[in-house]
């Protein structure tokens, strides 16, 4: 029987509920105990970039979208299933093109057979290694035998564009207002955090989070510097010329720790490592952040304050504040004006209390 009138509400579902995301690790040695492999289930937070402002999917009953990733290599598995589709009952009805939409956000070559996916996860678990240069490592506690490593890379690193094209969907799903970055722009730098577990004969790397940063030209007038209008082209060669200062203002654009690893200190550890890296780089003059949300502002405030206090950088500052001294501290710490003022305000309030 063909149904001509249907209760439309019955055919609408919440995209955040039906999108099942997983980070799948190596297939266990006991496939009966973990027939689907071992995994972290992730709940998406924002699906409006995929399914519109209401984050709803129309036209299916009991819809399930399985979007699974190998926890290290991010090789992808997609399966879309449902019990009923509205167009089978109501000719002319247009259900959401779920597969078409998801395909726009995952690179070609994703898998649709779960057994093949698990075999690939198994293989990648023992062969995948992070791309780029290792800049730091940490443990969450002294007696923890798991090491976390931070790698810095860019889109010229072989294989990284492909890796990033698998990774980037996470920023849409977890950062409100995030957009994809241009993979053809060489000024992007990306830092990635991996968990490293050593087994007898290999290291297993799982992705924990990442941060994208953009290097802006930073012109600072100094003795003998040319006016900005005379600088025709910005290139690395400028760094080597001595009569004006060419340097970089680095802007953190997207900062994400994946949900299973949030609130365990990874965000702070990544920020601290990057900040140390910026401080040690003479070409970076200032660090800014693009559109930080409250959670990131908290993380940054706490870590910047800790740095300023632990390194006794603000010890000499008293009320009334000496503007020149504040500016001196700001330049030394490479903080932007706004962040420096936030930190000073918090420190002064603490002193008053
Ligand atoms: N047990 C319990 N709580 C802990 C532990 C622990 N072992 N370790 C740290 N925490 C607490 C911290 O004290 C802190 O809590 P507080 O704010 O109440 O003091 C909180 O966890 C967060 O600290 P971290 O663990 O260092 O931060 P996290 O790793 O969770 O990263 C971040 C924070 C980046 C905001 C992460 O939650 C995230 O990625 N969220 C989703 C995406 C997002 O919002 N990104 C920022 C967007 S803005 C931008 O991109 C510029």
Could you outline the blueprint of secondary structure elements for this entry?
Layout: E1 12-14, H1 15-18, E2 19-24, E3 39-42, H2 48-51, E4 56-58, E5 60-61, E6 64-70, E7 76-81, E8 84-85, H3 98-105, H4 114-127, E9 133-138, E10 147-153, H5 160-167, H6 169-174, E11 188-198, E12 203-220, H7 237-240, E13 245-257, H8 266-280, E14 284-289, H9 294-310, H10 323-333, H11 337-352
Parallel strand pairs: 2-6, 13-14
Antiparallel strand pairs: 1-4, 2-3, 5-8, 6-7, 9-10, 10-11, 11-12, 12-13
Would you kindly provide a written description of the structure presented here, covering whatever features stand out?
The protein folds into three domains: 8-126, Histone acetyl transferase 1 (HAT1), N-terminal domain (Histone Acetyltransferase, domain 1, Alpha-Beta Complex); 129-291, Aminopeptidase (3-Layer(aba) Sandwich); 302-353. It starts with 11 loop residues before the first strand and ends with a helix. The model is unreliable at 232-244 (pLDDT under 50). The strands form four sheets. Strands 9-10-11-12-13-14 form a six-stranded mixed beta sheet, sandwiched between helices. It has a four-stranded mixed beta sheet with strand order 3-2-6-7. The protein has a two-stranded antiparallel ribbon with strand order 1-4. Helix content is 30%, strand content 27%. The protein is globular and about 75 Å long. With 353 residues, it is of the alpha+beta class. The longest helix is centred in the last third of the chain and has 17 residues, at 294-310. The protein is built from eleven helices and 14 strands. It has helices at 15-18, 48-51, 98-105, 114-127, 160-167, 169-174, 237-240, 266-280, 294-310, 323-333, 337-352, and strands at 12-14, 19-24, 39-42, 56-58, 60-61, 64-70, 76-81, 84-85, 133-138, 147-153, 188-198, 203-220, 245-257, 284-289. 29% of the residues are buried. The site of acetyl coenzyme *A has 22 residues, from strand 13, helix 8 and helix 9.
